[in-house]
Amino acid sequence: MYKMKRNKRGQALTITLIILIIVLISGVVLLYINPNKQTTEKCNVGGKIDPKTGKCAYLTTKEDITLPPKTPIKENNTKINPRVNITNQTAINYTNFNISEYEDNPFGWHPAYPYASAFDLGIRWHRDNLIWSLVQPDINKEEYQFKFVDGGKKGNFNYDQNFGVETGNLKKIITIFIEKNSRTPTNSWVPTNITAYQKYLQVLVERYDGDDNLGCKIAAPDCYSTGDNMYPSQEVIDGLKKNPIKYWQVENEPISLNKKLEGSDPSSDLTFAQLQRLSYEAIKTADPAAKVLLGSTSGGPDGYISQTLDPWQPILQTLDGKYADIFDLHWYGCAKGDYQILDTSNGQDVLSYLRAELTETGFPNLPIWMTEMGTNSGLATDANCGLQTEEQQASDYVKRYIYGLSHGIKKMFGILSLTEGTWDNPEDYFSKTELIYDGEGSNDLGEGVKKLSYYSYKLMTNKLEGSDWKNVLEIYNSSNVYAYKFTNKQTGNLTYIVWWDYWNEPELTTKQVTIPISLNGNVKITQAVPHFENGLILQQSGEDYPNFFDTETKQASNGQLSLSLLKNPVYIEQD
């Protein structure tokens, strides 16, 4: 008995000594990291500990704002809402720009974060989403939460901060997810509690439409119910007054989603028309000036018309020219010609077919947006594009925007985030359409390295911002050469973009062409893609933007310009 007590006493002394040693070592480490502070500070997204002060430093430029860990993917690689777990990114000061000037600007990204990178790129539109069950966990109670921290699997979200502060420099379109089969019957898009759904939409729109009515029923700090602490902060209110949310979308790719949901009958697609009507009426009740998009199409170029557009026809017929302000067309594909938006199974022009379908169903003047589009760099294992270089991706993004705008698409959004990492499998197509590497997967050149497409996108917006978007003209289309004319709305200055689809003439390395042009004398020709093989080599070169875009000077006369085209588009301007 005595021996056992002595051993326990010795063990206790040993444990005490070990604890003291650990405490001393921890103190030394903390002092080394921050001699002025004994505890470390946890930074929000976009912040890093400054080793000199021990405090969080937040970047306000384009450099190195990183995303948090990946959001888990749903089964079958369904696109999800990566914003749910992302809060407090660095906001841009409202005094740096006039948001009203961006209404007509076509350059968007879905979603446009990191936001500082979006601002650097000249992106002016951001597509985000909002989930009904997060805002209203119990549909039988008129209780709403637009910010929440639970520490659980749902993660943290703060729609107020995201919509009202962080994205202050971006016009926004918000997609509303209702979670079919969770809050609807299995074979219907219509919510089981229609009254609760429409009330939720009115509360949502009132909160973010920028007017004095915030939709609150009780006084601050509460809003909807006693103790909810949901009254928006003054910072959020001020931000939304400067940049209110005026564009809403009901669901994303509903027909495609319906095919994937277990137990869903494709015949229930038609019930989406009723959901669109219910949503439209509720949104317009709260904000008559709001615009409501249809839920978008989805699919690859092969068989797009029969598999994607035709299933929409009965929905459009049911809507009969009402309950929609904008049609959303999603378009992907490869970097060798898919920018022309053709159904590769039959060569039909998808835009022409869609416009005819809209006219037949009562929507002859419905604007068309493209809130998802793009192509990959590297090798995507789930696509048939083969290995695509950074150069090919960069060139294709320019062509997609120019072609789409010249054919009447009003807004165009690249996909999927500006930085890779929001898709589960790093080898999939949607893990490689972005403009910045995340350090994972094959063909990846390192976390934070900007692809050539990043710089090409920035040059494109720098050249074209301020254009008369209603007057973008295709001026040449012959022998695989295409030329487009942009006019600056204020100055009247002209910018031309010309390219050659070289893959259709593999026997040639250059293409000689003469195009009509309304410039005379010296003109400056600028390559649309940097003169490096990839973004890592560019980064290591030390060259500054825009010096890595090759330029030359040529003479234009008698309304014509002769030039030699290589693989990438060029910009032509008066020198």
Can you give a write-up of this model?
The structure is a single chain. The chain is an alpha/beta fold. It has 14 helices and 22 strands. It has an eight-stranded parallel β-sheet. Strands 15-16-17-22-19-20 form a six-stranded antiparallel β-sheet, covered by helices on one side. The longest helix is centred in the N-terminal third of the chain and has 32 residues, at 2-33. The chain is globular, with a radius of gyration of 27 Å.
Structural class by sheet pairing and helices:
alpha/beta
Figure out the total of helices. Answer: 14
The end-to-end distance, rounded to whole angstroms, is 99 Å
Spatial strand sequence of the major β-sheet? 9-8-7-4-3-14-11-10
- Please state the second-level CATH architecture of the domain at 474-574: Sandwich
Q: Give the CA-based shape.
A: globular
Q: What is the number of strand segments? A: 22
Draw up the topology in text:
Elements: H1 2-33, E1 47-49, E2 56-58, E3 107-110, H2 115-121, E4 125-131, H3 132-135, E5 147-148, E6 157-158, H4 159-166, E7 171-177, H5 194-208, H6 234-242, E8 247-250, H7 254-260, H8 271-286, E9 291-293, H9 304-309, H10 313-319, E10 327-331, H11 350-360, E11 368-373, E12 378-379, E13 387-388, H12 390-406, E14 412-415, H13 452-464, E15 473-478, E16 481-487, E17 494-500, E18 511-516, E19 521-527, H14 535-541, E20 551-556, E21 560-565, E22 570-574
Helix pairs in contact: 4-6, 5-8, 8-10, 12-13
